# Entry
Amino acid sequence: MITLFWYESHSTVGLVKAMMSEVQDRIGSGLELAIRTELDSVTTLLECAPVRTVLFEVTKERLAGLWPSIQTLRQKWSEVKWIALLPNSEFDGQLILSGFDEFVELSALEAGSFVERLYRIRSVYERSDALGLEGIVDFERIDEISRIIAEAPDLRRYEAESLMRGIHITEKKKLLQRFDGIFKVAEKRPEFLNQRLKLCVFGNSEYGSELGWIFSKRFKRRTLIIDADRLSPSLDLLLEVRKTLSDSLEGYDSYQSTGLNVLLDAIRKNCLTSEKILGTCARIKGNQDLYALTGSYNLNDYEYYDKDDFMKLLERIDSCFEVVILLVNAFIYDAFTAVSLLMSDKNLVPVSGGVLALRSAASSAAYVTERQRIDRLKHQFVAFDSNENRSLSAEDYDALTGSRYLGRIPSSLKRDKARMEGRMYGPMMDRSVAEAHEKVILKLLHEMRG
# Structure
Protein backbone atom coordinates (compact mmCIF):
# COMPACT_ATOMS: atom_id res chain seq x y z
CA MET A 1 0.00 0.00 0.00
CA ILE A 2 1.17 3.53 -0.81
CA THR A 3 1.17 6.72 1.22
CA LEU A 4 1.21 9.68 -1.18
CA PHE A 5 2.81 12.90 0.07
CA TRP A 6 1.37 15.82 -1.91
CA TYR A 7 3.94 18.44 -1.04
CA GLU A 8 4.62 22.09 -1.71
CA SER A 9 7.89 22.79 0.12
CA HIS A 10 11.06 20.82 -0.66
CA SER A 11 12.21 21.33 2.94
CA THR A 12 9.23 19.31 4.17
CA VAL A 13 10.02 16.36 1.89
CA GLY A 14 13.09 15.40 3.91
CA LEU A 15 11.12 15.46 7.16
CA VAL A 16 8.40 13.23 5.72
CA LYS A 17 10.94 10.79 4.24
CA ALA A 18 12.68 10.40 7.60
CA MET A 19 9.37 9.97 9.40
CA MET A 20 8.10 7.37 6.91
CA SER A 21 11.34 5.41 7.20
CA GLU A 22 10.71 5.08 10.93
CA VAL A 23 7.07 4.17 10.31
CA GLN A 24 8.18 1.37 7.97
CA ASP A 25 10.56 0.09 10.64
CA ARG A 26 7.68 -0.03 13.11
CA ILE A 27 4.94 -1.65 11.04
CA GLY A 28 6.85 -3.51 8.34
CA SER A 29 7.84 -2.96 4.74
CA GLY A 30 4.30 -3.10 3.28
CA LEU A 31 3.91 0.67 3.37
CA GLU A 32 5.58 2.65 0.57
CA LEU A 33 6.01 6.40 0.12
CA ALA A 34 5.27 8.26 -3.12
CA ILE A 35 5.97 11.97 -3.51
CA ARG A 36 4.14 14.28 -5.91
CA THR A 37 3.54 18.03 -6.19
CA GLU A 38 1.35 18.57 -9.30
CA LEU A 39 -2.39 17.85 -9.37
CA ASP A 40 -2.15 15.86 -12.63
CA SER A 41 0.55 13.54 -11.30
CA VAL A 42 -1.44 13.01 -8.08
CA THR A 43 -4.54 12.07 -10.09
CA THR A 44 -2.54 9.70 -12.30
CA LEU A 45 -1.09 7.90 -9.29
CA LEU A 46 -4.52 7.51 -7.68
CA GLU A 47 -5.80 5.98 -10.92
CA CYS A 48 -3.06 3.38 -11.34
CA ALA A 49 -1.63 2.56 -7.89
CA PRO A 50 -2.99 1.19 -4.57
CA VAL A 51 -2.85 4.48 -2.68
CA ARG A 52 -4.07 4.10 0.89
CA THR A 53 -3.36 7.55 2.31
CA VAL A 54 -2.78 11.04 0.95
CA LEU A 55 -0.78 13.40 3.15
CA PHE A 56 -1.47 16.93 1.89
CA GLU A 57 0.83 19.80 2.88
CA VAL A 58 -1.39 22.75 3.81
CA THR A 59 -0.76 26.44 3.29
CA LYS A 60 -3.57 28.96 3.38
CA GLU A 61 -3.33 29.93 -0.31
CA ARG A 62 -2.69 26.39 -1.54
CA LEU A 63 -5.66 24.93 0.31
CA ALA A 64 -8.01 27.57 -1.08
CA GLY A 65 -6.74 27.03 -4.63
CA LEU A 66 -6.89 23.23 -4.59
CA TRP A 67 -10.00 22.84 -2.42
CA PRO A 68 -12.46 21.91 -5.24
CA SER A 69 -9.99 19.42 -6.75
CA ILE A 70 -9.33 17.77 -3.38
CA GLN A 71 -13.05 17.24 -2.75
CA THR A 72 -13.49 15.79 -6.26
CA LEU A 73 -10.64 13.34 -5.66
CA ARG A 74 -12.08 12.39 -2.25
CA GLN A 75 -15.44 11.58 -3.78
CA LYS A 76 -13.91 9.55 -6.61
CA TRP A 77 -11.57 7.55 -4.33
CA SER A 78 -13.60 7.36 -1.13
CA GLU A 79 -11.50 4.48 0.25
CA VAL A 80 -8.41 6.73 0.47
CA LYS A 81 -7.75 8.45 3.80
CA TRP A 82 -6.84 12.14 3.49
CA ILE A 83 -4.59 13.63 6.17
CA ALA A 84 -3.76 17.34 6.28
CA LEU A 85 -0.21 18.30 7.26
CA LEU A 86 -0.82 21.59 9.06
CA PRO A 87 1.57 24.54 9.31
CA ASN A 88 2.25 26.16 12.66
CA SER A 89 -0.19 29.00 11.96
CA GLU A 90 -2.61 30.52 9.45
CA PHE A 91 -4.99 27.82 8.28
CA ASP A 92 -8.77 27.57 8.11
CA GLY A 93 -9.84 25.09 10.78
CA GLN A 94 -13.34 24.70 9.35
CA LEU A 95 -11.94 23.67 5.95
CA ILE A 96 -9.59 21.18 7.62
CA LEU A 97 -12.45 19.69 9.65
CA SER A 98 -14.81 19.31 6.70
CA GLY A 99 -12.31 18.54 3.93
CA PHE A 100 -9.98 15.94 5.49
CA ASP A 101 -10.35 12.71 7.43
CA GLU A 102 -7.53 13.64 9.81
CA PHE A 103 -4.75 16.13 10.38
CA VAL A 104 -1.34 16.29 12.01
CA GLU A 105 0.66 19.39 12.93
CA LEU A 106 4.03 19.83 11.22
CA SER A 107 5.60 20.61 14.61
CA ALA A 108 4.36 17.25 15.94
CA LEU A 109 5.17 15.17 12.86
CA GLU A 110 6.81 11.95 14.03
CA ALA A 111 6.34 8.25 13.45
CA GLY A 112 4.20 7.68 16.53
CA SER A 113 1.74 10.49 15.85
CA PHE A 114 1.45 9.58 12.17
CA VAL A 115 0.78 5.90 12.92
CA GLU A 116 -1.91 7.00 15.37
CA ARG A 117 -3.53 9.13 12.68
CA LEU A 118 -3.39 6.22 10.24
CA TYR A 119 -5.03 3.65 12.48
CA ARG A 120 -7.04 5.54 15.11
CA ILE A 121 -10.24 7.25 14.02
CA ARG A 122 -10.98 10.40 16.00
CA SER A 123 -14.56 11.60 16.17
CA VAL A 124 -15.56 14.88 14.55
CA TYR A 125 -15.95 16.29 18.07
CA GLU A 126 -12.39 15.36 19.03
CA ARG A 127 -11.02 16.89 15.83
CA SER A 128 -13.10 20.03 16.29
CA ASP A 129 -11.79 20.40 19.83
CA ALA A 130 -8.18 19.81 18.74
CA LEU A 131 -8.51 22.49 16.04
CA GLY A 132 -9.72 25.01 18.60
CA LEU A 133 -13.04 25.55 16.82
CA GLU A 134 -16.18 26.77 18.53
CA GLY A 135 -17.65 23.32 18.07
CA ILE A 136 -20.70 21.65 16.55
CA VAL A 137 -24.38 22.07 17.42
CA ASP A 138 -25.68 18.49 17.71
CA PHE A 139 -29.00 18.56 19.57
CA GLU A 140 -29.29 14.78 19.81
CA ARG A 141 -25.89 14.55 21.49
CA ILE A 142 -26.65 17.55 23.71
CA ASP A 143 -29.87 15.87 24.93
CA GLU A 144 -27.94 12.68 25.71
CA ILE A 145 -25.31 14.60 27.69
CA SER A 146 -28.09 16.39 29.60
CA ARG A 147 -29.62 13.04 30.52
CA ILE A 148 -26.27 11.68 31.75
CA ILE A 149 -25.63 14.79 33.86
CA ALA A 150 -29.07 14.52 35.47
CA GLU A 151 -28.87 10.77 36.17
CA ALA A 152 -25.23 10.29 37.23
CA PRO A 153 -24.84 11.37 40.88
CA ASP A 154 -21.13 10.49 40.98
CA LEU A 155 -20.20 12.48 37.88
CA ARG A 156 -17.37 14.97 38.45
CA ARG A 157 -17.05 18.23 36.57
CA TYR A 158 -13.99 17.24 34.56
CA GLU A 159 -15.88 14.11 33.45
CA ALA A 160 -18.80 16.26 32.34
CA GLU A 161 -16.42 18.51 30.39
CA SER A 162 -14.94 15.43 28.73
CA LEU A 163 -18.41 14.38 27.55
CA MET A 164 -18.87 17.81 25.98
CA ARG A 165 -15.73 17.81 23.83
CA GLY A 166 -16.45 19.30 20.42
CA ILE A 167 -19.89 20.66 21.37
CA HIS A 168 -20.43 24.26 20.27
CA ILE A 169 -19.04 26.65 22.87
CA THR A 170 -22.42 28.31 23.53
CA GLU A 171 -24.18 24.99 24.09
CA LYS A 172 -21.27 23.75 26.21
CA LYS A 173 -21.61 26.80 28.46
CA LYS A 174 -25.33 26.06 28.94
CA LEU A 175 -24.60 22.42 29.81
CA LEU A 176 -21.93 23.37 32.35
CA GLN A 177 -24.30 25.87 33.98
CA ARG A 178 -26.87 23.10 34.25
CA PHE A 179 -24.27 20.77 35.74
CA ASP A 180 -23.25 23.36 38.34
CA GLY A 181 -26.89 24.07 39.10
CA ILE A 182 -27.60 20.40 39.78
CA PHE A 183 -24.57 19.76 41.96
CA LYS A 184 -24.11 23.26 43.46
CA VAL A 185 -20.32 22.98 43.25
CA ALA A 186 -17.69 23.90 40.70
CA GLU A 187 -15.80 20.66 41.24
CA LYS A 188 -16.54 17.67 43.48
CA ARG A 189 -13.46 16.24 45.17
CA PRO A 190 -13.26 13.38 47.64
CA GLU A 191 -12.42 14.15 51.24
CA PHE A 192 -8.85 13.18 51.96
CA LEU A 193 -7.66 11.23 54.90
CA ASN A 194 -7.14 13.49 57.89
CA GLN A 195 -3.57 12.33 58.43
CA ARG A 196 -0.74 13.22 56.09
CA LEU A 197 0.16 10.73 53.39
CA LYS A 198 3.53 9.14 52.68
CA LEU A 199 3.81 6.93 49.58
CA CYS A 200 6.78 4.90 48.38
CA VAL A 201 7.07 4.31 44.62
CA PHE A 202 9.16 1.22 43.97
CA GLY A 203 11.39 1.09 40.91
CA ASN A 204 9.82 3.69 38.61
CA SER A 205 10.54 7.38 39.22
CA GLU A 206 8.60 8.40 36.12
CA TYR A 207 5.36 7.09 37.61
CA GLY A 208 6.12 8.75 40.94
CA SER A 209 6.65 12.12 39.26
CA GLU A 210 3.32 11.90 37.44
CA LEU A 211 1.61 10.85 40.67
CA GLY A 212 3.02 13.90 42.46
CA TRP A 213 1.84 16.15 39.64
CA ILE A 214 -1.74 14.87 39.98
CA PHE A 215 -1.81 15.10 43.79
CA SER A 216 -0.66 18.72 43.64
CA LYS A 217 -2.37 19.94 40.48
CA ARG A 218 -5.70 18.11 40.56
CA PHE A 219 -6.16 17.64 44.31
CA LYS A 220 -4.41 20.87 45.39
CA ARG A 221 -2.30 19.13 48.03
CA ARG A 222 1.13 20.45 48.97
CA THR A 223 3.25 17.60 47.67
CA LEU A 224 6.94 16.76 47.98
CA ILE A 225 8.71 14.23 45.77
CA ILE A 226 11.97 12.90 47.24
CA ASP A 227 14.49 11.29 44.89
CA ALA A 228 15.83 8.54 47.16
CA ASP A 229 17.00 6.40 44.23
CA ARG A 230 20.74 6.55 44.86
CA LEU A 231 21.63 4.30 41.93
CA SER A 232 19.75 6.17 39.20
CA PRO A 233 18.48 9.59 40.36
CA SER A 234 16.38 11.31 37.70
CA LEU A 235 14.15 13.92 39.31
CA ASP A 236 16.10 16.81 37.76
CA LEU A 237 14.98 15.68 34.29
CA LEU A 238 11.52 14.43 35.21
CA LEU A 239 10.56 17.76 36.81
CA GLU A 240 13.05 20.07 35.06
CA VAL A 241 14.80 21.31 38.20
CA ARG A 242 18.46 21.93 38.99
CA LYS A 243 20.46 18.93 40.16
CA THR A 244 22.30 20.99 42.74
CA LEU A 245 21.39 23.87 45.02
CA SER A 246 21.54 27.50 44.00
CA ASP A 247 24.31 29.75 45.24
CA SER A 248 21.89 31.41 47.66
CA LEU A 249 22.10 28.57 50.19
CA GLU A 250 24.94 29.62 52.39
CA GLY A 251 27.64 27.19 53.40
CA TYR A 252 27.33 24.66 50.59
CA ASP A 253 29.13 24.06 47.33
CA SER A 254 26.32 24.57 44.81
CA TYR A 255 28.14 22.46 42.23
CA GLN A 256 28.12 19.38 44.47
CA SER A 257 25.31 19.55 47.02
CA THR A 258 21.80 18.38 46.22
CA GLY A 259 18.73 18.92 48.37
CA LEU A 260 18.91 15.47 49.91
CA ASN A 261 22.62 15.89 50.71
CA VAL A 262 22.00 19.16 52.54
CA LEU A 263 19.07 17.92 54.64
CA LEU A 264 20.85 14.71 55.64
CA ASP A 265 23.85 16.79 56.70
CA ALA A 266 21.51 19.00 58.71
CA ILE A 267 20.14 15.91 60.46
CA ARG A 268 23.67 14.85 61.41
CA LYS A 269 24.46 18.33 62.73
CA ASN A 270 21.11 18.51 64.56
CA CYS A 271 20.18 21.77 62.86
CA LEU A 272 17.24 20.78 60.66
CA THR A 273 14.36 23.28 60.68
CA SER A 274 11.17 23.68 58.69
CA GLU A 275 12.64 26.79 57.08
CA LYS A 276 15.67 24.82 55.91
CA ILE A 277 13.46 22.05 54.52
CA LEU A 278 11.32 24.46 52.49
CA GLY A 279 14.34 26.49 51.40
CA THR A 280 16.16 23.41 50.16
CA CYS A 281 13.29 21.90 48.17
CA ALA A 282 13.00 22.99 44.54
CA ARG A 283 9.78 24.59 43.29
CA ILE A 284 8.26 23.22 40.10
CA LYS A 285 7.46 25.57 37.25
CA GLY A 286 3.74 25.76 36.54
CA ASN A 287 2.68 23.96 39.74
CA GLN A 288 2.71 26.00 42.93
CA ASP A 289 1.89 23.04 45.19
CA LEU A 290 4.63 20.67 43.98
CA TYR A 291 8.14 20.51 45.47
CA ALA A 292 11.15 18.33 44.67
CA LEU A 293 14.11 17.16 46.73
CA THR A 294 16.85 16.06 44.36
CA GLY A 295 18.96 13.04 45.27
CA SER A 296 22.66 12.34 45.18
CA TYR A 297 24.09 12.19 41.65
CA ASN A 298 27.52 11.08 42.88
CA LEU A 299 27.84 7.31 43.34
CA ASN A 300 30.76 7.96 45.68
CA ASP A 301 28.17 9.17 48.21
CA TYR A 302 26.31 5.84 48.11
CA GLU A 303 27.72 4.57 51.41
CA TYR A 304 28.28 7.97 52.99
CA TYR A 305 24.76 8.66 54.26
CA ASP A 306 23.37 6.59 57.10
CA LYS A 307 19.90 5.03 56.92
CA ASP A 308 19.15 6.25 60.45
CA ASP A 309 19.65 9.84 59.30
CA PHE A 310 17.30 9.17 56.41
CA MET A 311 14.68 7.76 58.80
CA LYS A 312 14.91 10.89 60.95
CA LEU A 313 14.49 13.07 57.88
CA LEU A 314 11.32 11.22 56.86
CA GLU A 315 9.92 11.66 60.35
CA ARG A 316 10.58 15.41 60.31
CA ILE A 317 9.58 16.24 56.75
CA ASP A 318 5.90 15.31 57.25
CA SER A 319 5.31 18.57 59.12
CA CYS A 320 5.89 20.64 55.97
CA PHE A 321 3.88 18.70 53.37
CA GLU A 322 0.51 16.99 53.04
CA VAL A 323 1.72 14.31 50.61
CA VAL A 324 5.28 12.93 50.47
CA ILE A 325 6.27 10.62 47.61
CA LEU A 326 9.48 8.62 47.96
CA LEU A 327 11.15 7.46 44.75
CA VAL A 328 13.33 4.40 45.38
CA ASN A 329 15.14 1.89 43.18
CA ALA A 330 14.08 -1.74 42.88
CA PHE A 331 17.24 -3.08 44.58
CA ILE A 332 15.66 -4.56 47.71
CA TYR A 333 18.97 -4.53 49.63
CA ASP A 334 19.38 -0.76 49.21
CA ALA A 335 19.14 0.88 52.64
CA PHE A 336 17.04 3.84 51.46
CA THR A 337 14.69 1.47 49.62
CA ALA A 338 14.26 -0.69 52.71
CA VAL A 339 13.62 2.31 54.98
CA SER A 340 11.12 3.89 52.56
CA LEU A 341 9.14 0.66 52.14
CA LEU A 342 8.96 0.33 55.90
CA MET A 343 8.03 3.92 56.81
CA SER A 344 5.49 4.63 54.06
CA ASP A 345 1.72 4.41 54.40
CA LYS A 346 1.50 2.54 51.10
CA ASN A 347 4.02 1.07 48.67
CA LEU A 348 3.10 1.49 45.00
CA VAL A 349 4.70 -0.91 42.53
CA PRO A 350 4.38 0.26 38.89
CA VAL A 351 4.73 -2.53 36.32
CA SER A 352 5.33 -1.71 32.65
CA GLY A 353 5.79 -5.20 31.21
CA GLY A 354 3.74 -8.39 31.05
CA VAL A 355 3.66 -11.48 33.22
CA LEU A 356 7.44 -11.71 33.61
CA ALA A 357 7.80 -8.14 34.91
CA LEU A 358 4.78 -8.58 37.15
CA ARG A 359 6.11 -11.82 38.60
CA SER A 360 9.47 -10.19 39.33
CA ALA A 361 7.83 -7.22 41.06
CA ALA A 362 5.52 -9.49 43.07
CA SER A 363 8.50 -11.61 44.16
CA SER A 364 10.34 -8.52 45.39
CA ALA A 365 7.26 -7.39 47.31
CA ALA A 366 6.86 -10.85 48.85
CA TYR A 367 10.51 -10.89 49.93
CA VAL A 368 10.23 -7.47 51.57
CA THR A 369 6.99 -8.53 53.26
CA GLU A 370 8.68 -11.55 54.80
CA ARG A 371 12.02 -9.97 55.75
CA GLN A 372 10.69 -6.69 57.14
CA ARG A 373 7.40 -8.13 58.41
CA ILE A 374 5.33 -5.68 56.41
CA ASP A 375 1.64 -6.36 55.80
CA ARG A 376 1.34 -7.74 52.25
CA LEU A 377 -1.66 -5.47 51.63
CA LYS A 378 0.63 -2.47 52.03
CA HIS A 379 2.06 -3.24 48.57
CA GLN A 380 -0.24 -2.22 45.68
CA PHE A 381 0.37 -2.67 41.96
CA VAL A 382 -0.26 -0.31 39.03
CA ALA A 383 0.03 -1.10 35.31
CA PHE A 384 2.02 1.92 34.12
CA ASP A 385 2.65 3.17 30.57
CA SER A 386 0.44 0.32 29.41
CA ASN A 387 -1.02 -0.10 25.92
CA GLU A 388 -4.62 -1.27 26.28
CA ASN A 389 -4.37 -3.49 23.21
CA ARG A 390 -1.15 -5.19 24.31
CA SER A 391 -1.50 -5.64 28.05
CA LEU A 392 -3.01 -8.05 30.52
CA SER A 393 -6.65 -7.64 31.45
CA ALA A 394 -7.66 -6.08 34.76
CA GLU A 395 -8.84 -9.51 35.89
CA ASP A 396 -5.43 -11.03 35.13
CA TYR A 397 -3.62 -8.26 37.02
CA ASP A 398 -5.95 -8.67 39.97
CA ALA A 399 -5.43 -12.43 40.06
CA LEU A 400 -1.63 -12.25 39.67
CA THR A 401 -1.26 -9.59 42.38
CA GLY A 402 -3.54 -11.23 44.92
CA SER A 403 -6.29 -8.58 44.61
CA ARG A 404 -3.81 -5.73 45.09
CA TYR A 405 -4.23 -4.14 41.65
CA LEU A 406 -5.18 -0.44 41.60
CA GLY A 407 -5.57 0.23 37.88
CA ARG A 408 -3.91 1.07 34.58
CA ILE A 409 -2.12 4.25 33.48
CA PRO A 410 -2.16 4.30 29.65
CA SER A 411 0.80 4.85 27.37
CA SER A 412 1.21 8.24 25.72
CA LEU A 413 3.06 9.59 22.70
CA LYS A 414 3.59 12.86 24.58
CA ARG A 415 5.19 10.94 27.45
CA ASP A 416 7.44 9.11 24.98
CA LYS A 417 8.54 12.43 23.50
CA ALA A 418 9.15 14.01 26.92
CA ARG A 419 11.14 10.95 27.98
CA MET A 420 13.30 11.11 24.86
CA GLU A 421 13.97 14.83 25.27
CA GLY A 422 14.50 14.76 29.05
CA ARG A 423 11.54 17.06 29.67
CA MET A 424 8.71 17.22 32.20
CA TYR A 425 5.54 15.41 31.12
CA GLY A 426 3.18 16.94 33.71
CA PRO A 427 2.25 20.20 31.91
CA MET A 428 1.50 18.34 28.67
CA MET A 429 -0.18 15.34 30.31
CA ASP A 430 -2.98 13.79 28.25
CA ARG A 431 -6.48 14.10 29.68
CA SER A 432 -6.92 10.31 29.59
CA VAL A 433 -3.68 9.82 31.54
CA ALA A 434 -4.64 12.42 34.17
CA GLU A 435 -8.05 10.82 34.63
CA ALA A 436 -6.48 7.36 34.97
CA HIS A 437 -4.11 8.65 37.66
CA GLU A 438 -7.02 10.19 39.51
CA LYS A 439 -8.97 6.93 39.46
CA VAL A 440 -5.95 5.07 40.87
CA ILE A 441 -5.59 7.66 43.65
CA LEU A 442 -9.29 7.48 44.54
CA LYS A 443 -9.19 3.68 44.70
CA LEU A 444 -6.04 3.83 46.84
CA LEU A 445 -7.62 6.26 49.30
CA HIS A 446 -10.84 4.27 49.42
CA GLU A 447 -8.93 1.11 50.35
CA MET A 448 -6.91 2.99 52.98
CA ARG A 449 -10.14 4.14 54.62
CA GLY A 450 -11.11 0.48 54.90
